[in-house]
Amino acid sequence: MLCDVGRLEVRDIPRPVISAHEVLVRVGAVGICGTDAHIFAGHANYNTNERGLPIPLALQPQILGHEISGTIEEVGQAVTDLKAGDRVVVDQGLNCVSRRRDILCDYCRTGDSHQCEFYREHGITGLPGGLAEFIAVPSVNAVKFSTSLAFTAAALVEPLGCVIHSSNTVAKTRKRYSFNADKPDERVRSVLICGAGPAGLLFTQYLRNVVGYEGSLCVTDPNGRKRVLAAKLGADQTIDPTSCDLVDVVREHSNGKGVEYLIEASGAGEVFASIPGLINKQAAVLLYGHGHAGTDLSVMNNILFKEPFIVASVGASGGFEPDGRPSVYKRSLSLIENGQINVDALITHQYNSFENVERALTTDMAKENYVKGVVVL
């Protein structure tokens, strides 16, 4: 439990009691996310009061962890499509459908459930997260998987879902350039992904293996191990931004014009100063990474001058299956199960106890050999 900024404690808490439409999940694995690190370090606090002001951790400690897989331990009396022993991935977000509201809000009604007017998230907005033995969620938030998929891989359904949701948002946006456009001058021919962390590596695979993009795909990251992994997973060029002029290299690789699609997945604020030189005019720019501390907003001036189509996206929700379960999570699970997306390649660190989480957040995430950590229970 995160009791204050930078202070985790392992505590005994009561086992959750479920309602008729809920399930109790015995947690099998939890991915450690950059969002966890931001909350832990005090850079962000998404548990807010009715006025939108952060509630101090000292007043309301939080159980982190929102990338969750596990086994059904108990089902509520009204649950008929799950049973004890089923292996599931958990959608940590509560929306109109999972809350069983009679009237859906505007966002849930149009398939934008991550912007639900009543949205809250386990492990992020104050609801207890997956870094615990058990978690109680609405039954429709539990997506069953029956393959031999390991809990560690299943825990990465959530971050891949975020990538899918972001990509879908970009695809729906009216813009000058798109993948596989009929007219050559409206087609994305070059892509730059800034950041080769878990998100950047998932975007790389998604573009190559799911979208079917065959054009130029560059990935930039100062970490050598991550660049090697990006190349293995589909990047045809990787760039160390600390050893060259990033703008010069990217423009050389894009016929001097800059890329038609840039994905900012690093969370590094200094990247914004380079974006005007990295993109073609009227390119699509996906702002995916969080953080960007210490960035002067004046860097946006030259970006806006190029009239890019800037898209911001967050979360893995978006639309529902007929049974009320989240469509994006089911799609994400399917891509991992059928091998189109390799998440095992990203997992470099595994932890077998809650006591190791603080070390992961304070020390391991900064190591050269760290890409993704998962707590296995």
Primary descriptors:
377 residues, Quinone Oxidoreductase, Chain A, domain 1, Rossmann fold, seven-stranded mixed beta sheet, six-stranded parallel beta sheet, 11 helices, 17 strands
List the helices and strands and how they pair.
Layout: E1 2-4, E2 7-8, E3 22-32, H1 34-41, E4 67-75, E5 87-90, E6 93-94, H2 106-109, E7 120-121, E8 134-138, E9 142-144, H3 151-154, H4 157-172, E10 190-194, H5 198-211, E11 216-220, H6 224-232, E12 237-239, H7 246-253, E13 259-264, H8 271-278, E14 279-287, H9 300-305, E15 309-312, H10 327-337, E16 347-351, H11 357-362, E17 372-376
Short description:
This protein is of the alpha/beta class and 377 residues long. Helices cover 25% and strands 22% of the residues.
Descriptive report:
By secondary structure, this protein is of the alpha/beta class. The protein has 2 domains: 2-156 and 343-376, Medium-chain alcohol dehydrogenases, catalytic domain (Quinone Oxidoreductase, Chain A, domain 1, Alpha-Beta Complex); 163-312, NAD(P)-binding Rossmann-like Domain (Rossmann fold). The protein contains 11 helices and 17 strands. It has helices spanning 34-41, 106-109, 151-154, 157-172, 198-211, 224-232, 246-253, 271-278, 300-305, 327-337, 357-362; strands at 2-4, 7-8, 22-32, 67-75, 87-90, 93-94, 120-121, 134-138, 142-144, 190-194, 216-220, 237-239, 259-264, 279-287, 309-312, 347-351, 372-376. The strands form 4 sheets. Strands 3, 4, 5, 8, 9, 16 and 17 form a 7-stranded mixed sheet that branches. Helix 9 links the parallel strand 14 (279-287) and strand 15 (309-312). Helix 4 (157-172) crosses helix 5 (198-211), helix 4 packs across helix 10 (327-337) and helix 7 packs parallel to helix 8 (271-278). The longest helix has 16 residues, at 157-172. It is globular and about 60 Å long. The two termini are 16 Å apart.
